[in-house]
Structure formats: structure tokens, C-alpha cells
Design a protein that fits this description.
By secondary structure, the protein is an alpha/beta fold. The chain has five domains: 37 residues; 54 residues, no CATH class; 171 residues, Ribonuclease H-like superfamily/Ribonuclease H (Nucleotidyltransferase, domain 5); 65 residues, no CATH class; 90 residues, no CATH class. The protein contains 19 helices and 15 strands. The strands form four sheets. Strands 5-4-1-6-7 form a five-stranded mixed β-sheet, sandwiched between helices. The chain has a four-stranded antiparallel β-sheet with strand order 9-12-13-14, with no helix packed on it. The protein has a three-stranded mixed β-sheet with strand order 3-2-8. Helix 2 packs across helix 3. The longest helix has 21 residues. The protein is elongated.
Length: 499
Amino acid sequence: MPGNKITKNQKRDYMSYRKNGNSQKLAASKVDISESSARRIENKINDPQPKYRNWKTRKNPFSEVWDTFILPILEGNPTMDASFILEELQEKHEGEYPDSTLRTLQRHVKQWKAIHGSDKPVIFHQEHYPGIQSISDFTELKNIKITISGEEFKHILYHFRLAYSGWSYMKVIQGGESFSALSEGLQEALWILGGSPKEHRTDSLSAAFKNLSKETAEDLTSRYKDFCAHYKMLPTRNNKGVSHENGSIESPHGHLKRRIRQSLDIRGSNDFESIDSYEKWLGSVVSAHNKRNAKKFKFERPYLQDLPAYKTTDFEEHLVCVSSSSTFKLKRVTYSVHSRLIGEKLRVLVYQRYIECYLGSTKVFESERLIPTGKNRCRLINYKHIINSLVKKPQAFRHSRIRDDILPSDDFKRIWKHVDQAMDARSACKFIVGIMYLASKYDCERILAKNVISIIDAKEPLSLGLIEKAYRPMANEKIPNISVSQHDISSYEYFNKEA
């Protein structure tokens, strides 16, 4: 066809047709070229082959310094960049080697490294077999902002994947990489999967063991090995900083995150009502991804090992002592417990979303888990734990270190701000502690706060006595008179005669 380049195959086929006795016109039509092109092919078929140029058309600007300056640098440090070498040359030979010569030097250095440089790492692509290997890793949704009820939700994702079939599981993780995040996510994935592979691979786990003492890191390493042994999996790790060794999950990270990004676009919003609703939505996205690998997973499923009869530990364990302020500190968070536990040592099980406290073998406390951001510290104080002591000495409230954390809601914080300005210091403390005591005793925290705020908005005077009267239903109720009619005692004589 006119305008198209004649290929080598066309030339070969044309000459083959000519040798078989076809005319020039017929042979040209069979390979879809013109007669003039056919004549040019025949005229040039016996021409000598063009000679390739093996000489340089320009003078090498670095020929004078290559052997004396550049080569010794490269031999001493084969990884040296050409840009750094050029900077050294410009410093020693001012004005002779402008920046425009950098590309030329880069070509010369690249060629020298290819011929004389050090060995480069070789990637050995692996063949995966069903039921053999699973992989865990953590990733984050870069440039994707997820919000919960309008507030930014900072988190990472735990990703589990079967190397052969590509079956995946994802879990929302707060607080960064940790042993509890890995073990909890891995155990959930295995039980949803319904079996375990023979090997489980992770990265170096350096982030999970960051800032831990040597003894603690060794303990977690031992517990991770025990965890894998429980599921009859061989634990393996790739070398630190060598991401391609975990390539069976690094690339799928991108595929799944792209699917998540596109699913959010279709959804039309990145905001969710709660963490649970976000995690449920994320599970539906991963399930849609798994459907594409359903055929390979169906083939791999029989090769997985049976699960054990019970789950194993997927939490961190800590020993804490309850202080005289009825609190204990754990992972930069101060938690309150009931004052009965002051002075006791508690065994705390730390999960991703909550903590459990045991006194001996008895669970005495359970709470959501707070995860501080950055290097900050935070508190989780339940006023009901300490209100019985505080109501006996309400003036301790004003200068308490945990004063703002004692107040149970924004409504109570608003009430405190008002009474602190409207009343004298003694009365203000007595009032706020008094209504918290009522809220705790009669379980009316929300309603009580709303009623007090309505009194404040109506600009009416606040009276703790009147409020106590309204929220003490038993004190307001009169004991009813109960009349009891006495039965005839002669009936007892009848039963005595029968006996």
C-alpha cells in the first residue's frame, strides 16, 4: 500500500514468488506492493550491504581526563554518579566542562559500568504452587482521604494474599504496624479462608518491632513463630529493604488500591458512618476482586491444610499496676478503672480495637482502645469509676490533672464552663460533681445534661437541690398504704384433723 514501509517478510515472499516463475506484476500483487517497489527490490538485491559506521563523528570532550581523573574515581567507587564526577571536574578545571556535557559523560560512565562495573542484583522470578505460600504486608491509601462522620480517619491496611490464586483479605488497622495487627489480621484471614498454607511470608517486620527493647522484640519474634506453628505454617521473611522479594503482594497492593479508588469514585463519597461500615464496604470491594480469581482459588482450596480446633492468641499482653488515682498507663494512654482495683496488678490483653483487663483469671474491665497520634499522649477516663470518691471531696475537681477528661460529654463541658463563670469556685465544683453523681447513680446522663442546659438557656437559676429532687424518684414517691385481710385461722384445725 502507498505510504507503508515494505517489510523484510514482503521482500522475502516477493523473491520467493519470482523464483517460482511468477511474473513481476503477479508477485508484487501477492505481497501487496507496487510494481515500482518490486523493481527497486530486484535492482537492489545484488547491491553490496551498507557499511555500518564504526568511527566517532565528534571528539570526546573527556578524553584528556578520562584515564587520569575519571577512571580512578570509577575504579575506586563503581557506583559513583556521573553528575558528581562532573561537579569535581568543574571545580578542578573551571570553565572547561559546562553542564551541557553531562549527558555525554553519563553515556561514557554507563558504558564503563556495563563492561567493568560491579555485578547487579538478579531477580529470580518464582513459580508458585497451590497451597504453598501466603503473604502478609501493610500498606496505606496514599492520596485517598477517608473520613468517619466528617472527621479524617488515619489508618493503614493489613493485606493477606495467597501467592498462587491471588485470594486476598484486607483489614483496617489503627495505630501502625504491630504484632497484634499482624496476628489478628492473619488469624481472621485464615479462618475466613477455611485453611492454612504451608508457608507464610512477611517483610522484615522492622516497623512492627520499632522502638521495642531487645527482650520485647525477641519475645514477639518467639510468639510469632508459635503462632505460625499453631497453624502448621513455616514463617519466612524477605531481606530488609529488598521489596522485590515480596513482589507477589507489592504489585497486588496497587491493583487493589486502584480498585478501592475507583469504587470510591462510583460511590461518590469518601465519608462513612462508622469504622465498621467502612470495613464492611472495604470487604465488599475485596470480595469483588476475589471473584476474578475464583477459578484458581477453587483449584487451590483442596491443597490448604485443615485449621486447628481452636484459635490462638492474637493480642499483646502487658502487666500494669492500678495507681492511687484509679488509673493505669498503657502505650501512652491513661485508662481509668473502678476504684476497687487501686493497688492491684492487672494483666491487660491488647487487641486492635479494644483492651481486656484480668485480675488473675477473672475479667474485671473491658474498654475501647485509644491510639494516640504522633508522640502525643491521651486519656480515656470514665467518671463513673471515681465519682463516689469525688462527690465526697468535690473541690478536688477544679485542679485535677484529668479534670477535662472526667466530664463525660460536650454538654457537661458546656455546663462546667457556665457554672465556673456564674458561681463561686466552691459552688461550681459542688454543682458539676453533684449532677455527675446523679447521672451515674440514676443512669440519666444524657437527659440530665439536656435539662440542665435548657435551664441555662432559659436564664433561670441553677439549684442542685431542685435537680436532685427531680432525679430521685424514690424520694418523691410516698410509700403506699397496703391493707392486708387476715384469713380465718380455723382452717388450720381442719388440716390437723385430717392428719
